[in-house]
Write the structure tokens for this entry.
Amino acid sequence: MNNFIFKEISSKEEMNKSYAIRTRVFCEEQKISKEIEFDNLDHLCGHFLIFDGVKAIGTARVRQKEKGLLKIERVAVLKEFRRLKVGSILIKNVIKHYLHLDYNKSIILHSQVAVADFYKTLSFSAYGNEFYEDGIPHIAMKYVKN
């Protein structure tokens, strides 16, 4: 059994690990352009990594869209670690981190349609119509507190 470790990014070295995961998953696998992936908003966000031992295997960022509204973005897990609940652990810990700080926050995300069911298992509910981001169908989703 794996012992995954969740951590808020606190150094340039850790940020570089996040960038490497995002590059591999979004730019190389999904062919998203680097200009779109690296949108110059990272400095406005909280960033997180999940590790398998010392290896960084997943990442996410969170941006405050407006007072009381947070958006989870750039969720990526290395291909060889998918289906091991890494994404679930990552998202649950991100939510726990922010709700621990302020329970009144609302949390949204834009899910790729292909993985929307994954987010539904984590208490997200879809709203609005499908839309495209860099040619990939997405749906807006909101976290529904249990």
